[in-house]
Design brief:
The complex is a heterodimer of chains A (about 350) and B (about 375). Chain A is an all-alpha fold and about 350 residues long. In chain A, about 75% of the residues lie in helices and about 0% in strands. In chain A, helix 9 packs antiparallel against helix 10, helix 9 runs antiparallel to helix 15 and helix 10 crosses helix 12. Chain A starts with a helix and ends in a 5-residue tail after the last helix. The chains are: A mainly alpha (about 350), B alpha+beta (about 375).
Chain lengths: ~350, ~375
């Protein structure tokens, strides 16, 4: 008995009166909140039903039959069913090349290069079609989670080079370049994403030559890229500041000129230091892609909201948004895990 | 050597000139397109429309408004709505964040684990999903007026919103204003008054709470009550505001919790032990040694979270809460068709708030940093 009461876990839970009170309070909270939640999510949930009325007749819990009925819509939007293999192939390409860039023992630079050049080009051809006998699919038919992934990938791919340029610009010794970079960064960091998405949607046609029309998706992509690049610039600037001065001095002593020093010595080390920050930006970006649903694109959030207006499944908001939240949670988890893997891989050389 | 230096300087000027020229050309091209496009539509940039009669209703407002007011006044009304929502969210997110951080640091594995789970789940799901979830899945399925959920016989929650008692009276206003003024002045001039011994953080919040209680006791309370099919009296908090406050408040609280935890853990060990070995009690060590130092690392990231909150209130546009973006970039834009002017104003407002706040932040930061070393 004495041995049991001395168990560290018990002591941590009931060691002092205060701690015991907290523990009991927490347990009471769990007892109050968890059973109904589990009953709703699993116990009384309905997995098979043709519509909402049948769902409610079958059980009082969540109507997951709604999610099952709309599953394809949530992932592909209204992308034509016979062409969906193209989305899957594109995703496969992204996953394989991405995994290659993460895990390859050698030639990781080449994998990265392919990821940033071939994959976007191939992805665009695959998804949009119109080339090599692929039927064209207008972007108005793109939707669901696929759209979130496309926007995140394009915005991140565009924001990294742009962010690097802005970060160097902000550290430049030339005042004009410094001023322009600061203005650009502070503008995009000072405005809400949704407001600039509105701006892109409403104003972009006004700023382009008469008669030029830009696809709604392209407008959102441009805004997301520029917005992300400002945050990227600040993260990479932090990385640049973290590289010891000795590195630049040593490189200059070896006879490298300024550009070589920055690009070959400072930048790679700075990027390695910025990996955690970049991953944070990627997670935030992925979550923020949901905002495009407010400006009329049908990403996962947009499709879920739209599906709840279907008379057969009217008003199943709790199920729809819970599903969306779960999908985003796991997607963000994957990005975070990939990030920490990347950090460990690229950190190998710097371990003491 | 001299010629090389000169060549270097010339190269620098060429670079800068080239970039400046390119940017100027880009802006010229954009503005040229804009003026051509506007001319083709027979329009020109003119902020005169702000003085025109607006003629639309703003469903939730804290300052005077009806359809006869001009568009310009709508910016003020919606701006107040934005700031009001931001203030509520900041309070909620700070308190929740503090609670989550304390749970995490409590040493009780159950509390720490719960806090950690909440933080991980909330910060990995989109803010918009949470706001819309609260709005559509929680607040819109509440019972109708007649079957309101009632607390203490004076607060009613139903599908139309939350009805709460409303305080009023001159004594109430005066006491509340005086308390706020005293607290703000004391916070600013604390050191000059020579009160080094007691930390502001321990004294001022209770003073604020005490002032609010006294004001509340002296106020005339107007209670909501069900008359026929509607509530009369009291104040209605619309579900849009509730959803926005809950959604953004909960979302931001987990980031604040992590910031507070990191700051306290960053100071804790050596400083705490040193304070204890000098004979300070554990609460003295916390309030006199750890918290003042933790605050220094806490303030910059906390401010940036608060600024994020102000920017995030634009998500109110998703659930039609009448904030700046919803009223201006939707209603006013649709009615007046003045796209360029409206977007300039909206972006300008947010940019100004953010730049001012970060400038103030830098000043504050420099002061704290100087004191430290």
């Amino acid at each position: 008995m004495r041995a049991l009461t001395r168990h560290p876990l018990l002591r941590a839970l009931f060691g002092t009166p205060g701690n015991a009170a907290i523990t009991l309070l927490m347990l009471a909270g769990f007892a109050w909140a968890l059973p109904p939640l589990f009953r709703w999510m699993l116990g009384d949930a309905v997995w098979e039903a043709p519509n909402r009325a049948a769902c409610q007749a079958a059980g009082s819990g969540a109507c997951w039959a709604f999610i099952r009925a709309r599953f394809a819509l949530f992932f592909y939007g209204v992308y034509p069913a016979p062409e969906r293999w193209r989305v899957e192939l594109g995703l496969l390409l992204l996953v394989v090349i991405g995994a290659g860039a993460l895990f390859a023992r050698r030639g990781r630079g080449w994998w990265l290069l392919v990821l940033l050049t071939v994959v976007p080009a191939a992805g665009a051809i695959l998804l949009a079609g119109g080339l090599f006998g692929l039927a064209p699919v207008p972007t108005a038919q793109w939707g669901g989670l696929m759209l979130n992934v496309v926007i995140s990938f394009v915005a991140l791919g565009g924001a990294i080079p742009l962010g690097i340029a802005l970060a160097f610009g902000r550290r430049s010794r030339y005042p004009v370049i410094r001023l322009l970079s600061v203005a650009m960064i502070e503008f995009w960091r000072g405005v809400p994403l949704l407001a600039v998405l509105f701006m892109g949607l409403i104003l972009m046609p006004l700023f382009l030559p008469n008669g030029v029309t830009v696809d709604n998706l392209v407008r959102a992509l441009v805004v997301m890229t520029l917005f992300t690049s400002a945050y990227m610039a600040e993260t990479i600037r932090g990385g640049l500041q973290g590289v010891p001065n000795g590195q630049a001095e040593a490189a200059e002593a070896l006879g490298m000129h300024h550009g070589q020093v920055q690009l070959l010595v400072i930048l790679p080390q700075a990027l390695r230091l910025s990996i955690p920050g970049i991953i944070n930006i990627a997670v935030d970006l992925f979550k923020d892609t949901t905002l495009v649903s407010i400006v009329g694109l049908f990403d996962l959030m947009g499709v879920v909201t739209q599906s709840m207006k279907d008379p057969a499944w009217l008003g199943l908001a709790a199920e729809g948004y819970t599903f969306a939240a779960i999908v985003f949670f796991f997607a963000c988890l994957v990005i975070s895990l990939g990030g920490s893997l990347l950090e460990r891989r690229f950190g190998e050389g710097s371990r003491r | 050597m001299n010629t090389r230096l000169k060549a270097h300087a010339v190269k620098g000027w060429l670079w800068q000139g080239g970039v400046a020229l390119a940017v100027a050309a880009l802006f010229y091209w954009l503005s040229h397109n804009l003026s051509t496009n506007l001319a083709a539509r027979g329009m020109e940039i003119d902020f005169g429309f702000l003085a025109q009669r607006a003629g639309f209703d703003i469903p939730f407002r804290l300052v005077a408004w009806d359809g006869s007011y001009p568009y310009g006044w709508a910016l003020y009304v919606s701006g107040v709505n934005t700031l009001f929502a931001s203030a509520l969210i900041i309070v909620l997110a700070s308190l929740l964040g503090l609670a989550l951080a304390l749970m995490r640091l409590s040493g009780n594995p159950l509390a720490a684990g719960t806090s950690r789970t909440i933080v991980e789940v909330v910060r990995n799901t989109p803010q918009l999903t949470q706001i819309v979830f609260f709005y559509i899945a929680v607040l819109q399925v509440l019972p109708p007026m007649r079957q309101s959920i009632t607390w203490f016989g004076s607060m009613f929650l139903n599908v139309r919103g939350l009805y709460v008692p409303a305080p009023s009276g001159t004594a109430y206003d005066a006491i509340l204003a005086a308390t706020c003024a005293v607290v703000v002045l004391a916070a600013v001039f604390w050191r000059r008054l020579g009160w080094h011994e007691v930390p502001r953080l321990v004294v001022l919040p209770p003073v604020l709470v005490l002032g609010a209680i006294i004001a509340g006791v002296t106020a005339n309370w107007d209670y909501p009550s069900l008359k026929g099919f509607n509530f009369t009296g009291g104040t209605r908090v619309p579900p849009e505001l509730l959803a926005l406050v809950l959604g953004i408040g909960v979302y931001t609280s987990v980031f604040i919790a992590e910031i507070i935890r990191a700051a306290i853990q960053g100071i804790h060990r050596g400083q705490g032990e040193a304070a204890r070995s000098l004979g300070l009690s554990s609460s003295q060590a916390m309030f006199l040694v750890i918290l003042p130092q933790a605050l220094r690392i806490l303030i910059p990231p906390l401010t940036s979270q608060y600024l994020n909150i102000i920017k995030s209130t634009t998500l109110g546009a998703a659930i039609a809460y009448p904030e700046v973006l919803q009223i201006f970039a939707r209603t006013v834009l649709n009615q007046s068709g003045r796209a360029v002017e409206v977007m300039t104003l909206v972006l300008g407002v947010f940019l100004a708030v953010n730049l001012l706040a970060s400038a103030a932040m830098n000043v504050w930061n420099r002061r704290l940093a100087l004191q430290g070393r």
